[in-house]
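notes to self, project folder thing:

trying the whole complex as one job this time. last attempt i did each chain seperately and stitching them together was a nightmare. two parts in total, labels are on each line so i dont mix them up again. if this works i'll redo the older ones the same way
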Amino acid sequence: MNAAPEPGEFDSIVNALRVVMREQEENLREIDRMSEVSFRLWLNSVAGRIAKAAGVSLARMHAYLGDLTTILTNARSTLRRSYHDEYRRARRVPPTSAG
Amino acid sequence: MPDFIRQHLRRFTTSVEQSDALSPAQRASLLRGYEEALVNEAPPRLVLIGQAGVGKSKTINALFNAGQEVGHSRATTDRAWTIPVQQVSGSHGTLEVVDMPGIGDDIANYRRYLDLYREILPTADAVVWIHAAKDRTVQLVQQALKDLFGPSPELVGRLVFGLNKADEMGPHDWNTRANLPSELQRAALLDREGAFTRSIAQTLPAWRGRAVSYAALHHYNLTALFKEMMYAVPEQRRWVLEQRMDLADFTALVDRKLLRAAQARTLAEVPAATPEAPTGAPAPAPGLRERPNPERPRSVDEALAALSDVQWQELQTDRARFQEFVRRVEREMGR
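result (full assembly):
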């Protein structure tokens, strides 16, 4: 083990330690963020299969999943009135004319 | 299981169970389907490349808390030459690890294995190439990259380069008290990361990563290595890797006094959770009234280091108490 640092050196080592600890926290936050995005993508990919097996529409499945990203992605990509209506029914929100 | 997945599953289960539009059979099918999909998702498969003794096993242990011996192996092919896929038990789940024999180690074996390498690479979630930080020779790595990834440029994104044994980098003056490279070592490591990254990018221009220096033995910079691995894994599979993450604690090897001083300064900088300042002097934590060391402290750092673990935990969780403690120590020092 190294010898105990001098007072001035102590400060610089403590600061170096803080920098490394902060970098660690930032890395962990980024890892967490990537994981969550990844999980949503995966969920979107398996939702269709699960819904089909249960005889439930995809829109209803998304409503149960309650995942905004998944819902918006599908709403944008399909733009089908039936999708929106089915989703609202499942969420118990009355359909509007804007569809 | 990470919190967000647990919460998601709970929310989904509640929504399904409360829905009166579903038959009991549909409810059961949905819940079963979701849970089966979660459970049946294949474990992450990591292909490891690197010379013998470069620290591949130590790296896996440090990233996934996989202290157990490697489990059973199964052949990926029934040819005479095979590459075993090892089932490794980490503390948060199993992963598959393929140790590519011969690459960067034994030219004769490398040539014989080349076709098998090309078969196994597309099955990898990430290809982790481990190199000793102090080793400047990259010609063999470059040649192998051309052979392996030249015909499969779509796999380049799965490559991660880890420069292990950062502690052995010149001038060999790792700070064991802080568990950090010295300033000179840190500068040398940054140079090496840059040079290594450039040499890989010259060989594989499509590769967009960066080489990461770390020390598996000292648990140093493991988060940076893991982050690079996450980038390399196909997007839909990243959560599967993160689920298994259990990084060895870097701070466990840091001198207690240094660690507390660093944590205390960070604590002093972080804005309080509630914007309004506490009125009046907050009562110090009960255990803090009788500090174990009756001598007058010479510095705040010293006073913090003298606290028991319980006292330190109490201070860390209450910023007002922490500030009061620091003020009190400063008053005592000035007396």
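what i see at first glance: The two ends of chain B are 53 Å apart (CA to CA).
need to look closer tmrw
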